[in-house]
Automatic annotation (TrEMBL):
Entry-linked Pfam families: GST_N_3
SUPFAM superfamilies assigned to the protein according to its UniProt record, in alphabetical order: GST C-terminal domain-like, Thioredoxin-like
InterPro entries cross-referenced by the UniProt entry: Glutathione-S-Trfase_C-like, Glutathione-S-Trfase_C_sf, Glutathione_S-Trfase, Glutathione_S-Trfase_N, GST_omega, GST_Omega/HSP26, Thioredoxin-like_sf
Source superkingdom: Eukaryota
Keywords: Oxidoreductase
GST C-terminal domain span: 102-234
UniProt protein name: Pyrimidodiazepine synthase
Organism: Orchesella dallaii
Domain (GST N-terminal): residue spans on this chain: 18-97
């Protein structure tokens, strides 16, 4: 695993025998999906961090469009897009199963994974845009937390510790987790823009889930504290992104 994010002019590290290469960015929630599922499946990985503002020239050979995450198998084949990578790991490494074996339950969870996309735009504007209109902030918070509340109610309806059941997290849990790990940065940026106590009351089930997820070994392996996420988001808002922040902590 490289410790720093590689930039233009950096050579591509050689593949390591017996390991699956993951091209990622340490603070990218989509890349975190690949990291979480590989860890949950106990896959031997070699992670190469990529500076997305000054990308190595060879990245387009490893990921069309120059995006992360991307996975390179030992025989040189490439798999990219976070949800497809997650499915690849679940299919290629049978245990433990992350998708439900029940076709209907699996389909419902896939719908919920796709539905989570509604939270992406308001979260991005709140966490990463430096010049977001102050008058729009309460509505953006309402939009984002409205999606969160929907998932909290779904978990409450299921009556289980995780979306996948009581035993351990499953695919849906891991696919939405990266945004919940970053969720605390919003009240850190906008402490007076919403009634946060009321919001927490409306998402009690998901807040309990959050605390359980932090104890999961795969989540704990790549967990970044809200304080560090907040510091990273500040560098994004200010236009001076610090990809290598964790090497200085």
């Amino acid at each position: 695993m490289t410790s720093l994010h590689l930039t233009s002019g950096s050579p591509c590290p050689p593949l390591q025998d017996g390991k699956v290469r993951i091209y990622a960015m340490r603070f990218c929630p989509y890349a975190q999906r690949a990291l979480l599922t590989s860890a949950a499946k106990n896959v031997e990985t070699d992670i190469v961090w990529i500076n997305l503002k000054d990308k190595p020239e060879w990245l387009v050979e490893k990921s069309p469009g120059g995006k992360v995450p991307s996975v390179e198998i030992g025989d040189g084949r490439i798999v990219y897009e976070s949800l497809i990578i997650a499915d690849y790991f679940d299919d290629a490494y049978p245990e433990p199963n992350l998708h439900s074996k029940d076709p209907v339950s699996k389909a419902v969870d896939r719908i919920l994974v796709e539905g989570w996309g509604k939270a992406g735009s308001p979260f991005y504007q709140l966490a990463f845009v430096g010049s977001v209109d102050a008058e729009k902030v309460p509505e953006l918070i309402k939009e984002f937390e409205g999606v969160v509340s929907t998932y909290s109610k779904e978990l409450e309806k299921r009556g289980t510790k995780f979306f996948s059941g009581d035993e351990r997290p499953g695919m849906l849990d891991y696919m939405i987790w990266p945004w919940f790990e970053r969720r605390p940065v919003i009240p850190m940026f906008f402490p007076d823009a919403a009634n946060w106590d009321e919001i927490r009351q409306n998402s009690a089930a998901i807040d309990q889930w959050y605390n359980r997820m932090k104890e999961d070994p795969a989540v704990a392996k790549y967990f970044v504290t809200p304080e560090i996420h907040h510091r990273y988001c500040i560098t994004v808002k200010e236009g001076n992104i610090d990809f290598d922040m964790l090497t200085k902590v």
